[in-house]
Amino acid sequence: MAIAYHDPEVLVRDEPDRDLTPQRTAHRPGEARPHVLIVDDYEFNRNLLASLCELFDCTCECVKDGAAAVKAVKLRRFDLVLMDVRMPKMDGMQATRAIRKLNSPMSSVPIVAVTTKAEPGDIARYMACGMSDVVAKPIRPSKLYEAMTSKLMPPEPIKRSWQAPTLQ
Asked: Which of 48, 80, 85, 111 has the lowest tally of Cβ within 10 angstroms?
């Protein structure tokens, strides 16, 4: 099954082979639910991403452009930003650069680009401006989940259960 997107070349596809039940969360058990900022100029995309965030047990807020994203990040704490790249007023790359220049802890918030342009050269440009990862449109829930969890749940340090013997 496919759901049409405003742009006829972009589709959102269901993935019946992947387990995306509400038990699959983007955070460790016992931790607070991550709060995600969704930045996209299309209402359909904002609603889709908000539904997926809810499915992954995250809370979220949505804004329509990069300028609103920078303002939101200045005012509130977010654990992750899902940022469209092409938007009016201020695009995602400009917004990312502005967020990275903030004099606050939010300047290091993980920012995941969500875009139709995800060729290697495009990805290099997004990373160079300060984005942390890229999810290509059409949005595959499993790819979004992987990107979100890689930023929200970095690997835990390896705990040694044994002590190496010391030589006398």
From this structure: 48
